[in-house]
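Because discrete structure vocabularies remain unfamiliar, we turn briefly to a single example record, giving the amino acid sequence and backbone structure tokens:
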Amino acid sequence: MSFSAVKQFESDLAQYWGSNYAVATDCCTHAVELCLRYAEPDYISIPKHTYISIPQLAHKLYIECHWMDTQWTDYYEIGNTNIVDSAVYWKRGGYIPDTLQCLSFQFKKPLNLGRGGAILCSTRDQYNTLKAMAYDGRDQNSSVYWGEQDIQHMGYHYYMTPETAIEGIRRLTKSHERVTKQWTYADYPDCSEFSCFKDVSIYE
């Protein structure tokens, strides 16, 4: 199956949100991970109340992590980066300029694809690099067999499948109809209290 559907979904998504570009991924957590790998921060600050996979990325990527007592609504910015976790936020024209804004298409979200995510971004360089990183470092726009390409970026096999993108194209225009609540920090437990984060030096 052709990846042209993924490119079309990315274009539709960017237009819907008001960003210049969108990079489709297999889930929101991997979207955030790709952004962290791209940004390479020395440390990050994360709200105590968030989904557990986000602070777990700090351990996975060996990044120093500071906990924040942030009472956020809709979305939050990961401290010391321009990365925005918008997994529970959905708004036409809602792109935050000059950020790497990460979306979720998990089954509870307004655009329910069962699984999937995306990164909204503002520059062509961000798009090209993050797109390659999501696709094993391969140039998806190239007609050259990947084994004959010069793979310039480390890749992570986090791309969205054409089948998911086709469903995304079909459902995008009516996604606003499923916005049923406003999510806040209060919808999440205090992750800093979980045992997996105790006695691990990177978490402060």
In short: Helices lie at 4-17, 28-39, 53-61, 124-134, 162-172. The beta strands are 21-25, 43-47, 64-68, 76-77, 83-85, 100-104, 117-121.
